[in-house]
Amino acid sequence: VRLVESGGGLVQPGGSLRLSCAASGFRFSRYAMNWYRQAPGKERELVATITSDGGTSNVLDSMRGRFTISRDNAKNTVYLQMNSLKPEDTAMYYCRAAGRYDYWGQGTQVTVSS
Question: Which residue of 19, 29, 32, 102 has the fewest C-beta atoms within 10 A of its own C-beta?
Answer without folding.
Answer: 102
